[in-house]
Design a protein that fits this description.
Elements lengths: L2 E6 L4 H11 L4 E7 L6 E2 H4 L10 E3 L3 H7 L2 E4 L6 H10 L3 E4 L8 H8 L6 H6 L1 E2 L2 H9 L3 E3 L3 H15 L7 E7 L14 H4 L4 E2 L8 H12 L5 E7 L6 E8 L6 H11 L6 E3 L17 E8 L2 E8 L7 H12 L9
Parallel strand pairs: 1-2, 1-5, 2-4, 5-6, 6-8, 7-8, 9-11, 13-14
Antiparallel strand pairs: 3-4, 9-12, 10-11, 12-15, 14-15
Length: 337
């Protein structure tokens, strides 16, 4: 019997990508598609690429109806909204994979950065941070997955082996560029074609809400405080993230030594690829895939790691499917590429 899947927030960029991956998955049935919508509509009429693939009616969310039809629910909802619905699905005995930030941070940190009190602190404590390269064992037994943010995925994977081996000698600096879909499917002047095209801008310097997520997860991985200085940039592309991460080393290490640390750490990671010496990833290498590609350079006592992901896949929907595969013992790359 196949696993029954529901997607809440199906008409956003991430919801659409979740459904695309699920439609290729041999072990599941898509049984529920919901979104904020003016009137119920057949999903494939809203998104013609899904004609003959997902012809379900897309309706507004009714938690009871979705719970009847599903075993697993993906919440592709805005921050501060997921925490209203996750506890209802969990109480109904459903497993939840949440793609918002609502279950990624401690309550006080969340309140400070998202300017909203956390109203589901009981489930917050039980949530598992869904970065497979770090928490694969915990993900297997989880009922609630906090899917990582896109910027944190690219930056944490770039720094994680160095942090775990305790070779970091100072604050980590992450300089990241993202395509426009990272802001979600919404009408906003700063995201319009005329504002973004032929332009590049930094924003939320040192105050982006993903920065505490990076520091929290890397700190827990290392057992000590990790400082991250993060500057995001908006680039005139639809999708993709390139994060250049500067990591001060405690002592001088050869590039061969560092490359050995990274290759050893990621030797069993299905979706992380460490490039050969002198080769650095580009966004086009990972577009429409669930891969994170890493390039490594050592300059004296500074380690520079270039990390590339597709923000909608490894940074969101693909990683959510990867987590589901681990939870249910499916092949980790089922439905993914």
């Amino acid at each position: 019997m196949k696993l029954r899947e529901g997607v809440v927030g199906a008409t956003g960029y991430v919801g659409e990508e979740i459904l695309r991956a699920l439609s290729r998955h041999g072990q599941i049935d898509i049984t529920s598609v919901t979104a904020i919508i003016d009137k119920p509509s057949i999903f494939s009429e809203l998104f013609p690429a899904f004609k003959g693939i997902i012809d379900l009616m897309c309706t507004n969310l009714d938690v009871g109806e979705v719970a009847k039809k599903t075993d697993v629910v993906f919440l592709a909802l805005p921050h501060t909204v997921s925490m209203q619905y996750a506890p209802l699905f969990l109480k109904a005995g459903k497993k939840v994979i949440d793609l918002s930030a609502d279950y990624r941070l401690d309550a006080d940190v969340y309140t400070y950065w998202y300017k909203h009190d956390h109203v589901d602190q009981g489930n917050l404590k039980a949530a598992v941070y869904g970065l497979p390269e770090l928490n694969r064992g915990q993900i297997k037994d989880a009922s609630l997955i906090a899917n990582p943010g896109c910027y944190p995925t690219a930056t944490i994977l770039a720094a994680l082996p160095a942090v775990k081996r305790d070779i970091v000698g100072g604050p980590i600096i992450a300089d990241a560029k993202s395509g426009v879909t990272g802001a979600g499917r919404k009408a906003a002047i700063p995201l319009c074609f005329g504002e973004v095209d032929e332009n590049l801008k930094a924003y939320k310097i040192g105050e982006h809400q993903h920065m505490p997520e990076m520091m929290s997860i890397l700190g827990k991985a290392s057992g000590k405080k990790v400082d991250v200085i993060f500057t995001p940039h908006l680039i005139p592309m639809r999708r993709g993230i390139l994060s250049t991460v500067y990591i001060p080393l405690k002592e001088t290490l050869s590039e061969t030594d560092v490359r050995g640390i990274y290759n050893d750490f990621y030797k069993s990671a299905r979706f992380v690829r460490v490039h050969k010496q002198g080769v650095f990833p580009e966004i086009k290498d990972v577009l429409n895939t669930n891969f994170c590609d890493l390039g490594i350079k050592v300059c004296g006592k500074l380690l520079i790691v270039v990390s590339c992901i597709d923000n909608l896949l490894k940074g969101a929907a693909g990683q959510a499917i990867q987590n589901m595969n681990i939870m249910y013992g499916f092949k980790e790359d089922e439905g993914l590429r």
